[in-house]
Amino acid sequence: MDIAVRQLGPDDLDAALRADEAAFSDEVKPENREQARATIEWPRMFGAFDGDELCGTAGAYALEVTLPGGAVVPTSGVTAVGVLPTHRRRGVLSSMMARQLDDVAQRGEPVALLTASEATIYRRFGYGVACAFRTVEVDRSRATFVPALAGGSGGSSGSGRSEGSSGSGGAVRLLSKEEAIERAPAWFDAFRRTWPGEVSRPASWWPFVFGEKETWRGGGPQFVVGVEDTDGRPGGFATYRVTDGPGPHERRLRVRDLAAADPAVRDQLWRYLFGVDLVTTIEADVGLDDPLRWRLSDFRALRVMGERDFLWARVMDPAAALAARRYEREADLVVEIIDGARPDVGGRYAVAGGPSGASCERTAASPDLVMDVAELGSLLLGGASARVLGEAGRIDERSAGALAVADGFFGTTSTRPHCSTPF
């Protein structure tokens, strides 16, 4: 079978959406079609053709990602990757991913990111798990905050009941769709620069994040609340919807989005959510280091319902990516990277750095560690332990003690990475 991969254009929208429906066994609803038409970046959208038949797609967004230490670098946010059931296991995906990685390299983006529908697909293309999230439930009847110590970063009030106006920021208020589109992008931009793993959101996304027909994470109307900037402190916002629970008189509040660079504003938003009437359970996806549980007076009021991988990272330029981030402690290592998909990326790199800066360049020196490029992706955002990867047989220690050094070097004792944006 001869497969040709080429760039798609707006005239290919209908065929691309039909391929998406078949690949994911899902219906493309009218609102999803509208969102696709407004947000697809056609210069980054590729299609695989078997003759005249579009049998697969692979797209991407031009995004930025925050690295440990606060540096922001351009990244390719891979999306809409699918192959028709009639054409699987025929090299279609490999052809599209190769073309897409060529495109990322030509654009000079040091890293590509994706969220994987299946966990066994993308490692062979160099992607490694970079961050995970937890789904948590909070019993609203027990959701009260402990008082923050004087001078602490948390809010000042200990109650979780209807205290939207408490704390050190402005008042929490409901926002219209138009107000949310106007105010939230700046709040989110301030927030995403404070947390490794968070990515930017293009301007074309926001009308759909706050759309009347909610397509951001599926189903139903939503409410948006915001806290305005106060005394130089950036505000924040949260979106949520309330649905009937499985039992009588049970209602669940599902937090869709919560973004605030300032911890006191974040506390205010949570207090508001805990104070919504006629709700028994609050559900949210949070980062592995989210402080919510520790803010609660009753530690057991929050239950972890599940944990799963989310963001996968593929390093395209190890020298640029490793030099851009900051490290927990001063160290220097020689790392040999094996890259089966793009051998030109592989090789030995001398990386040296610490909390204030870093450098990385190719070297002929003997390696301290040898790893696949996928493991480098796992280490890049600080979401994986070098020691654990070594014990799992995914990193080969060539110099005694190098794994221990790498564990403290690449790790993040401050905040493990999290990404709140599906794409």
Write structural notes for this entry.
With 423 residues, the protein is of the alpha+beta class. It has 3 domains: 4-126, Gcn5-related N-acetyltransferase (GNAT) (Aminopeptidase), CATH 3.40.630; 133-307, Aminopeptidase (3-Layer(aba) Sandwich); 318-410, SCP2 sterol-binding domain (Nonspecific Lipid-transfer Protein, Chain A). It has helices at residues 13-24, 30-39, 92-107, 177-192, 206-209, 263-274, 292-295, 318-324, 373-380, 386-391, 402-410, and strands spanning 4-7, 46-50, 53-66, 72-83, 111-115, 128-139, 172-174, 223-227, 236-244, 251-260, 281-287, 302-315, 331-338, 347-354, 357-362, 369-372, 395-397. The strands form 2 sheets. A 12-stranded mixed sheet has the order 1-2-3-4-5-12-6-11-10-9-8-7, sandwiched between helices. Strands 15-14-13-16-17 form a 5-stranded mixed sheet. A hairpin with a 5-residue loop joins β3 and β4 (72-83). The longest helix has 16 residues, at 92-107. It is globular, with a radius of gyration of 23 Å. Residues 155-167 and 214-219 have low confidence and may be disordered.
Entry summary:
This protein has about 425 residues and is α+β, with helices and mostly antiparallel strands.
